[in-house]
Design brief:
This protein is of the alpha+beta class and about 270 residues long. It has a single domain, classed as Clam (outer membrane lipoprotein receptor (LolB), chain A), CATH 2.50.20.10. The chain has a 16-stranded mixed β-sheet that branches. Strand 12 and strand 13 form a beta hairpin.
Length: about 270
């Protein structure tokens, strides 16, 4: 059970660590980034330009009251391609994240997960088990700092991992790359220059004793009543093992009335 829940949730939790306080540039920016312009030595016009880019990215954040979606999830790990999953998502802003994880080939709901700002409930329908945990349980799975709002924004596709203290940038072709450094990762984020939509994120571990890396691609932007929504996410997580995940939203609806059912049958045991 834990492995499937990890696969679905940790791919976004891993990115949350990049929101932390920026460290000194010279101690963490690697030599391969020297082609970027380091803002500490930049002229005022460069700083002004990056501030404009940052504000444009912020304006592209997706706002919502409620959100529901259906996505196809495919993943590859050290054992090869895993079974295809269909995941139904429902969210009420700042209140509830509800996930129904289904084995696509059998049309069978295997797990149901409900997260609030302070709790996690996990229903394992195969083993007839329910778990009640604090929200820190997700931190234990991902082994990284995490809060409810970070996961909420990452599911909806907002760049919450963007630190306003940008240490360098690169302006090339049709894209702009911003670099920030947090307590755990160096974050290189690529933004489309024309519409300032997020295209790619690469995170590299700054701890020399670990080699965690993550790459996340956003594509398939679809129009909404508000800002465009990225319907396709491709993720690669790697340390000792490698996990590749593709998530594609087949359906999504904003701001409709939703419920979040989580009835626990009497014959389920509590863990």
């Amino acid at each position: 059970m834990k492995s499937i829940v990890y696969m679905v949730t940790a791919l976004v939790l891993l990115m949350s660590a990049a929101c932390r306080t920026t460290k000194k540039i010279n101690t963490v920016i690697s030599k391969k980034d020297t082609a970027s312009t380091v803002l500490a030595d930049a002229h005022a016009d460069s700083v002004r330009y990056i501030n404009e880019v940052f504000r444009s990215v912020e304006k592209n954040k997706v706002d919502f009251n409620t959100f529901s979606g259906k996505m196809k999830v495919e993943y590859w790990d050290k054992d090869g391609k895993g079974p295809e999953l269909t995941v139904f998502v429902r969210m009420k802003k700042d209140s509830v994240i509800w996930l129904s994880i289904n084995a696509t080939v059998f049309s069978y709901e295997a797990f149901r997960l409900m997260i609030t700002p302070d709790s996690v409930k996990l229903l394992n329908k195969k083993d007839k088990v329910v778990q009640y945990r604090s929200v820190e349980y997700l931190e234990e799975i991902a082994q990284l700092p995490f809060d409810f709002n970070t996961m909420q924004d990452l599911i909806i596709g907002n760049p919450v991992f963007l630190d306003s203290n940008i240490v360098s940038y690169k302006n090339s072709g049709s894209s702009i790359t911003l670099t920030s450094v947090g307590n755990f990762f160096k974050n290189l984020m690529t933004i489309n220059k024309e519409n300032f939509l997020l295209e790619h994120v690469k995170l590299d571990d700054i701890n020399p004793k670990r080699s965690r890396t993550s790459e996340l691609n956003y594509s398939g932007y679809a129009p909404t009543e508000g800002n465009p929504f990225a319907t396709v996410r491709k993720i690669v997580l790697a340390e000792k093992n490698r996990l590749e995940v593709q998530m594609e939203f087949k359906q999504f609806i904003f701001n409709e009335s939703l419920n979040y059912p989580f009835a626990v049958p009497k014959n389920y045991s509590v863990q």
